[in-house]
Amino acid sequence: MRSPGVSRRLSPPKGLAKGGGVDLVAHAQSRHRWLPYLSYGLLVIIAFFPLITERPYAPQDTQVVIFEIISRTTQPYAPWGWVFHFSTLMVIALTVWKPEVGSRAIAAYFGLNYLVIAAVQTHAQTPAYGYAIHTGALIADSLLGLLWLGVAWKNRLYLNFSKAPRWRWTFLPLALLIFWSPLTLEGTKAIPNFNPLLLLTSPDYGLAYCFLTPVFLFLLILAWPGVDRLALQLTAFNGLLYGLFNLSHWSSPERLWLGVMHLPLLILPVVALGLAHFSPPQSQ
Question: Please, which residues have CB within 8 angstroms of residue 173's CB and are 6 or more apart in sequence?
């Protein structure tokens, strides 16, 4: 997927290095300004698609059903948590070495990771509701995966760490926290787990949408304006939606730490949306 009206690729390193070469972003935004807002509306509708369950559930129990799904999905794949950590570090290292090649790799990797999450995290066998499918998340994760594979295919992401404004690095602790994912679920209770090994082995990062997305958004914030604007807007808005949904964890003492762990999914989407909507590309 690409922003409408854009006929050139977004990643010419010479233009970005000089602070120019991004007029195509402004040109894209000058046409079809309604498209992001229409897309936001569609994402909201998708997010409220009813769950599919073997046994019926009351609408007010939707969050309970979702928690039953996500609290069980990563368990069978926990031994593979290290794969997602090392893969992320590898594409970041590649970007440091060769920004043009690494940027495309980042878009492709996170696109594939979203497809993995769609396949793994959106359904589970639950004790109370039988086999359950988180329909909205399945659709949204699949769309995001295809979106970023399209961005990679059209080479519409360019990230040069040395060009990122210093103030954007202040959000690095949020990305590191979520990459670490110092969390353990014991039944319905979420407790802190500050085992340093989780920095490279946590099964939540890479297998959970709410933990993958803040890390990706942090990289996109660093990359702006070398990012497909519409792709950034949709990724950030969908992240903000689920960040708001997960405010419900703060109402349960057993899941308070889970609420803390979802703060990056509230903060980073707001920053990304602010850049995409209000930061003129010419000033980057």
Answer: none
